[in-house]
Amino acid sequence: MLTTGRIMQWVIAATLPGLLALTLFFGWGNLINVVWCTLVAMGTEALILALRKRPVTFFLSDGSAALTGVLLGLALPPLLPWWISLIAAASAILLAKQLYGGLGSNLFNPAMVGYALVLISFPEAMTTNWAQPLALLDEAPGLLDTLAIIASLAEPATIDGITGATPLDVYKHEIGSRLASTVTADPIFGDGIARGWEWVNLAFLAGGLFLIRLKIITWHIPASFLGALTLMTLLFGYDPDQSVPVQMHLFAGATMLCAFFIATDPVSAATSNKGKLWYGAGIGILLYIIRAWGSYPDAVAFAVLLMNFAVPFIDYYTRPRTYGHRKPERGLPS
Amino acid sequence: MTEYLLILVSTVLVNNFVLVQFLGLCPFMGVSNKLETAMGMSMATTFVLTLASVVSYLVHEYLLVPLEVEFLRTISFILVIAVVVQFTEIVVRHTSPLLHRVLGIFLPLITTNCAVLGVALLNIQRQNSFIESILYGFGAAAGFSLVLILFSAMRERIAAADVPQPFQGAAIGMITAGLMSLAFMGFTGLVTL
User: Fold this and answer.
1) What is the complex's ipTM, to 2 decimals?
2) Is the pLDDT of residue A156 over 60?
3) I need a labelling partner for B104 at 20 to 30 A (CA). Which of A208, A257, A314, B32 fits?
């Protein structure tokens, strides 16, 4: 039987290919972040539950806090200092989840609240601190070196060229003044999309399709989200010499992670199938708007949070017709 | 044409009056408990805000400037807004007694909604033309309505949640508004006017 705990376990299992790809292409950073964020998230959850005199082990064993930590660890820059991840994971559980009454009552996606909070508070660490693909480094930092960087014992700057902006960021800022072919000549773009990122996104895509196959998530949100993002890119960004091309929108950022693991959070997403289609499409459109015309290079957190606000409203107007009731001819569905 | 569109995008999303400029917070917290009241309040505020920015522009341009008494603009705008609100109240009372009863005290309270005075004063400060003033007022009201309606739908859901006791009521509402504001910061840099 699919209990909450079992579902969360399957979702965490489905992120493993993506985590593996991240570790293979960008080093140990994400793995350490995942472990650290999970510990912080579960610790915060246990603390609040104890303060509220709720059964701690019962609520912890449903795995939802662990999943929040895992998603944050996957989404945050790999070499982020430990205390920024700590703030992100702790406020994700505290502000976005426990203050609203715990699992099932949270209006916002907890992981994305944590992410947006640290993105606004520490913009430089969150945008220029991305680990570069290992293939481009003379000497790949080992597990202990990475731990030292994350624990702020060693400066990442001392190892030259280890961090930088993401390909999405670089493309967006260079494309106005240079042609697409000269921009993508930079080795971080690999064969034209983004070195490493394309495999990470494919791995998340595979994990997501596995979840759809298991019927843990439905196809509605990923399909309408990816469809809306593609459509927006084809409408407004069809010229690769002027704006980020469609394959880079789909495979160079956090797109696939968002489509299958973040946007599909069953608590903060819309409920009915029709509502899910609107919700996914809204995220796709907002993601494109902020990526293309805003000042943030990737905007998964903002797009998801903005649509989270709209969810109660969407649910209100997309209530499925109950059996035996006809569609009202005019006015609100009652 | 693009310029007018940019004014709308800027006032509705990027410089949203409630979530980014923190104006008009009292009705935002006070009338957001039910979706229906929020919708009524949004319509009333949209009407008042647009009308008030038009009238205050005319008053400034054709009364205060020729008489060289621009220093009186704050006090004269307050008067203009009070008149417009009274006018709206009379209209609402006669067209929809139900809405009038639901909105109750909040309709006269639009007089003290700082967003209304803020829009009128910002229009002068930004040296907006007549059309720009209308759009600026309308955009501000549309942004206010958008977040008020979404927020009230959310508060209906929070009312059913198991919120820790010290955070019930207005406290969790404030936290939710803060998180909304956090997400609206994503629109930073979308439009620079």
Assistant:
1) 0.86
2) no
3) A314
